[in-house]
């Protein structure tokens, strides 16, 4: 790489940064952020009055004050191979790519999900990128941020309170208290709330019944907020939420309870996209954070669309590997919103492919070309999968110092054999300049003809066939198998007239099968479907294949115990 | 009143307001607020960089950037007679008085509690003053505001999660799961959460135990936030929270669990006071909202102290009538913080005194001088009570159109016979100018010698004698009676070395007795003490006398059902 170019591209701030490998928080704090109105003005052309500031370095975009109709930027989806404990760096690559695009003169922004507060107190670590590819202020992003998750928690729990209150005061809708499926939520890792009895204590305190809590990101309202086109669409979808059944087993909705208006009021600010900046002062729209298993795992449609109205290229990320994240991005988010990606980037690392080839985590530092070769079957499957959507991805090899030339060349061969461009990326160590080659490759694709993006299935395919299609086409499965309960739910969903909805498959992200230990690119397996959940508000049917945890617990030594403020009021222990 | 003066005093905005009697929200929306940095700059001398904006009309004051040491403003406590459904208008009078002081040329601010979100969806109505004496933006204030309550909810529930997690992973502290007194909180009216079982579902999901939820304003953390001097004091108090007992019945604290650091991190922004404005663009510091029964019911010490460092006069309000609110303000907030009021205003209405005299709510429009005379015993008791603290209040008669001259003169006689100044106030209809007479009376007192404010009891009086002192001196009780459980708790609190703490009496606010229907100024009764709760973090002992509801329920027809956004995105039905 050309050193002189480096010097030009590195911003005044980046030169003074702690060396690569310094803690993320040290790097983040070494950068002097631009006032957020300056980011908005210089990078998005958005005037200060159209921002709703939250402090000096965060804001919401007031969509009533912003014209997003005069431009339609290109959309780049960042996805990855099957995740392993080795780490792939999808968020880091998304941020690095946006910085790199700006560095080569393209007006680009990055759209990401908001992290959940609860898990920060469990296992150490935030979610704002890393190294020299971060979104800041990372402390705020990982804590209360701009209050969106709290608003979702409030709206969710208001509906829950209205349900129990309805039953308490006479149950006019004839709700079956045993079949209330709407639980409560909290943005906290709290296993003791998974299964609860509520309404105890006597007649003054409601109707006793079994219930429980999920973490806020698992709320259907989170999925709804991320799929809504605007406030009216949000309210319509909130009204469609099925909260349980009546005594005739008919679905009862939030609209039947009259709850959707007040819920929308609680969400009126939360639906406005949030703006922060990367370490290189490029715009990062961070908005919404639905679970990637029981929901679709990408940031809000409103944020993506806003970013496309304000910058020429928008880099966005979908959760987990391409089999789950990219599939849901296209088959759910794109289908519902009308958005289409113009290019895709598939992130991999030598280390992760080594793990896919069977190497243990503590052996990843040793060169092992054979393991990489074996593991690259996983990469190959993901590239082929993306091609089924009509997208040949640019493969970004997120470089580690331990990577060997032989290992790298094996990966490159696989990519080239499938017609995919492949580039190394060093944004973690170098910031945007480190991802310049990826950015150039992406730009070449964007400058060419738009891809003909295809859904994997059409709306009118029955739900079971949709699941079968995803399993056989993407996971390499031979078939799917519905257990008796799921079969019954399937019939019911069709009878109720929801057969046209897309499916959202909740399975382990660590394997193409339902068994996390099956690495590489297994095939011929059967995907077991245990349960179907109708998310009538969000607008998809969740197919649960294996255990899905909707309320995490804290570990034996939670990070919370070492988190505090130092004498200067700076957070220690959170990252 | 002088019309010409009126014209001068009314701001440009107020002249264009809807007529008195228009809905509060219409009046509020008719005023064009100043940008909050302008309020800060012009009214507080605080520069924009020392604000943490939340939108354009709300901010937090960044106390690290503000010098509050060069001034010590005078403090005016607004309190009231015993509350009735007729309404007294304590918040309205506090706001009106601050506006009136500014109108007569005094630099004044108002310090109030933040309202709770949950109750807004129960019975219609917000809490930001009313008529032409309001704090704006009232919608935000009544919903998520600047996120303080959500932060308190998170910090509270993190501690709860850490407790259950500690038990789950082996219970090193030997916590007695049956004696965990730390519950969870939610800012919602949800009766079904009052009594719950948590930890059900098998060994992977924690230890089953009885527990429940309180509304967030009832959290000890809310009381702590409002009493803390600064961040360090906050953390110290959080660490002192007693969360339950171990198997040897020894108290276990949040510090024993190592939770106070992470809790402080969650509260790091919440401790900064919030700034909004009155309809007349005067500074309103709205911060904290502890329950007025099981806590001390006034805004944060940090907000009061900040306001005193920035304006010459600070008007603040305490919850319920003077027997509860003013007593706790002085015996708890002032004792702990070192603050002292320089004057007090006691709010009453003709209608409320009529109710105290036995008139039913639907008969209040009729003139009834006898009832007023009878009811003014209540007013008399409150004035005498305030004098026991060394404060002769200015009595503000909050005028209603139905008030009769005879009725008014009865009230005035009572006040004058006790040496108290009394003035009529019409801020609800007229804004600040309407409370000019009260403001002048207050100013006269402030210009005179500072009162010698006395606590009702000294620290070293035993807890039971403290309660007895309050009951006999203020409530007119003959004695207090501890039931067996409370007696046991009393002994234990003394044994544990907490006998020096002040007491916080939780009883009905509607009577001097523990029986809400006993109006006027009853005496000779016995105050029953049912339970003592040691709030070691907040630093007081709660004496529960009668039923105390720490988690409200929703009514049969909750306001939530008629709350929504109109086509312009404006909230309807909330106020």
Describe the structure.
The structure is a homodimer of 575-residue chains. The first copy, chain A, has 575 residues and is α/β, with parallel strands linked by helices. Chain A has three domains: 36-145 and 270-446, P-loop containing nucleotide triphosphate hydrolases (Rossmann fold), CATH 3.40.50.300; 148-265, Domain 2, N(10)-formyltetrahydrofolate synthetase (2-Layer Sandwich); 464-544, Formyltetrahydrofolate synthetase, domain 3 (Roll), CATH 3.10.410.10. Helix content of chain A is 35%, strand content 18%. Chain A is built from 20 helices and 26 strands. In chain A, the strands form seven sheets. In chain A, strands 1, 2, 3, 4, 5, 6, 14, 15, 16, 17, 18 and 19 form a twelve-stranded mixed beta sheet that branches. A three-stranded antiparallel beta sheet of chain A has the order 7-12-13. In chain A, helix 4 (90-103) crosses helix 18 and helix 9 packs across helix 11 (260-266). The longest helix of chain A has 21 residues, at 148-168. Chain A is globular. The two termini of chain A are 31 Å apart. In chain A, 61% of the residues are buried. The interface between A and B is large, with 76 and 76 residues.
């Amino acid at each position: 790489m050309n050193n002189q170019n480096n010097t030009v591209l590195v911003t005044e701030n980046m030169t003074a940064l702690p060396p690569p490998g310094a803690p993320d928080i040290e790097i983040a704090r070494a950068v002097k952020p631009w006032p957020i109105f300056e980011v908005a003005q210089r990078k998005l052309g958005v005037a200060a009055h159209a921002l709703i500031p939250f402090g000096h370095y965060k804001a919401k975009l007031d969509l009533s004050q912003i014209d997003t109709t005069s431009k339609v930027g290109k959309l780049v989806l960042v996805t990855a191979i099957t995740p392993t404990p080795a780490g792939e760096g999808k968020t880091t690559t998304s941020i690095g790519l946006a910085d790199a695009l700006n560095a080569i003169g393209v007006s680009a922004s990055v759209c990401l999900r908001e992290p959940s507060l609860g898990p920060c107190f469990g296992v150490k670590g935030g979610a704002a990128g890393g190294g020299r590819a971060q979104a800041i202020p990372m402390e705020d992003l990982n804590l209360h941020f701009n209050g969106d998750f709290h608003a979702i928690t409030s709206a969710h729990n208001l509906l829950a309170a209205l349900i129990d209150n309805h039953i308490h005061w006479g149950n006019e809708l004839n709700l079956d208290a045993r079949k209330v499926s709407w639980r409560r939520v909290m943005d906290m890792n709290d296993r003791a709330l998974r299964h609860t009895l509520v309404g105890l204590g006597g007649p003054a305190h409601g109707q006793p019944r079994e219930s429980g809590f999920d973490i806020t990101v698992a709320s259907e309202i989170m999925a709804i907020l991320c799929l809504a086109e605007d406030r009216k669409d949000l309210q319509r979808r909130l009204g469609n939420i099925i909260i349980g059944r009546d005594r005739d087993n008919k679905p009862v909705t939030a609209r039947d309870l009259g709850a959707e208006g007040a819920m929308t009021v609680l969400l009126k600010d939360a639906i406005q996209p949030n703006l922060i900046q990367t370490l290189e002062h490029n715009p990062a729209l961070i908005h919404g954070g639905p679970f990637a298993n029981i929901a679709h795992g990408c940031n809000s449609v409103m944020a993506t669309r806003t970013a496309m109205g304000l910058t020429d290229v928008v880099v966005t990320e979908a959760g987990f590997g391409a089999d789950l994240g990219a599939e849901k991005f296209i088959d759910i988010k794109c289908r519902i919103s009308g958005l289409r990606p113009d290019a895709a980037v598939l992130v991999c690392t030598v280390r992760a492919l080594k793990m896919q080839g069977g190497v243990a985590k503590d052996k990843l530092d040793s060169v092992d070309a054979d393991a990489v070769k074996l593991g690259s079957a996983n990469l190959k499957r993901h590239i082929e999968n993306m091609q089924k959507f009509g997208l040949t991805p640019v493969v970004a090899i997120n470089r580690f110092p331990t990577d060997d030339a032989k290992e790298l060349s094996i990966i490159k061969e696989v990519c080239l054999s499938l017609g995919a461009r492949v580039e190394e990326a060093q944004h973690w160590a170098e910031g945007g300049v480190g991802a310049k080659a990826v950015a150039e490759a992406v730009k070449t694709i964007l400058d060419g003809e738009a891809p003909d993006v295809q859904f994997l299935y059409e709306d009118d395919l029955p739900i079971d066939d949709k699941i079968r299609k995803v399993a056989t086409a993407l996971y390499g499965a031979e078939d799917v198998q519905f257990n008796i309960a799921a079969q019954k739910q399937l019939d019911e969903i069709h009878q109720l007239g929801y057969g046209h909805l897309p499916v959202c498959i909740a399975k382990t992200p660590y394997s193409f099968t339902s068994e996390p230990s099956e690495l590489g690119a297994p095939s011929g397996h059967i995907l077991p479907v245990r349960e179907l959940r109708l998310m009538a508000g969000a607008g998809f049917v969740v197919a649960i294949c294996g255990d899905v945890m909707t309320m995490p617990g804290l570990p034996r030594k939670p990070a919370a115990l070492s988190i505090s403020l130092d004498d200067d009021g700076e957070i220690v222990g959170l990252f």
